[in-house]
Amino acid sequence: MKIGELSRRTGASVRSLRYYEQKRLLASERSPGGHREYPEAAVDRVILIQHLLTAGLSSDKIADVLPCMRDHDGGPAETATPWLLEQLEAERTRIDRSIAELRYTRDVLDEVIEAAAG
Asked: Residue 2, Cβ neighbours under 10 Å: how many?
């Protein structure tokens, strides 16, 4: 599929897809005319990249982790290593802290809203 179709199917901008390629998170072949062509599996790969970015992982961290993950479900691939487990546990701990901070902030806002509503 061409870059525009991959963009439409994943919601990622064309610019983002080019960036993912630049960072070696995504690969394409070139057509005889020089256009990027992606396999069907690129849809799952881009969605996984987007989830990892949303979770706060940097593109460099994602580049380290992606070879050890399956695209279709984000589970560990046969190449998963103890290093990957350590990295992912550290990221999960960071995400847990962020969730706790967001819950606290929401609770404070709820109290302010309740007080303001009288």
From this structure: 14
CA neighbours within 13 Å on the CB side: how many for 78? 0
Whether 74 has a pLDDT exceeding 60, the answer reads no
Distances (CA, A) of 53 to 32, 96, 110: 33, 16, 29
Separation between Cα atoms, residue 10 and residue 26, nearest integer Å: 13
Q: What is the residue type of 11?
A: G
For 4, 35, 67, 102, the CA distances from 10, given in Å and listed in that order, are 10, 19, 20, 27
pTM: 0.71
